[in-house]
Amino acid sequence: MDSNTRKERFSLAYIGAVASHADCEVVEPKVDRGSVDGMLKRASITELIGFQAKATSRDLISSSADHINFPLPVTDYDNLRNAGRPFILVVVLLPDKESQWLSQSNEELCLRYCGYWLSLEGRSGVTNTSTVTVRLPLANRFGSVQLGTLMDRAASGSSL
């Protein structure tokens, strides 16, 4: 597997671990179409949240340390902002060295570093042709409590 594929699979494993802890499941389509890497589903809620997963080992945390500047392909940006259903971008930050992505002992399994989410719903179009830089607040950590809140918002029809 090449490095980009390993990053993609690692980000999906991270999302899956968080989802399991939040009593949700990840439904992955066989083919990534329209920037959909998966859907998050909770048994007690009929609404699904779609997601696009990205992973990077680049240092993208802003100098003010309150957000990540992530270069998103314009195609993904447009698909996510026009999804027509609850949809989030999840960016998982990874250490530069693959050997540091995960550590394991008899007491724990540690995945490094962290994932962050962003809804692009309602964003305006851009004139860029290749990428658009989106800002993911560090407050939007993709964790089980936060995912539960997102699922509750989606179920009530609120914006994410």
Description of the molecule:
Strand 2 and strand 3 form a beta hairpin. The protein has 3 helices and 9 strands. With 160 residues, the protein is of the alpha+beta class. The strands form 3 sheets. The protein has a 5-stranded mixed β-sheet with strand order 1-2-3-5-8, with helices on both faces. A two-stranded antiparallel sheet has the order 4-9. It has a two-stranded antiparallel sheet with strand order 6-7. It is globular, with a radius of gyration of 15 Å. The chain has helices spanning 3-21, 74-81, 144-156; strands at residues 24-27, 38-42, 49-56, 67-73, 87-93, 102-104, 109-111, 114-118, 131-137.
Shape: globular
Share of helix among residues? 25-40%
* Uncertain regions spanning at least 5 consecutive residues: none
Count of separate DSSP helical elements? 3
Number of DSSP strand runs = 9
Largest sheet: 5 strands, mixed
For the largest beta sheet, what order do the strands appear in spatially?
Answer: 1-2-3-5-8
Q: What portion of the residues fall into strands of 2 or more residues?
A: 25-35%
What is the string of helix and strand elements?
HEEEEHEEEEEH
Radius of gyration: 15 Å
Note the gap between the termini.
34 Å
The SS-based structural class is alpha+beta
Mean pLDDT over the full residue set: 90
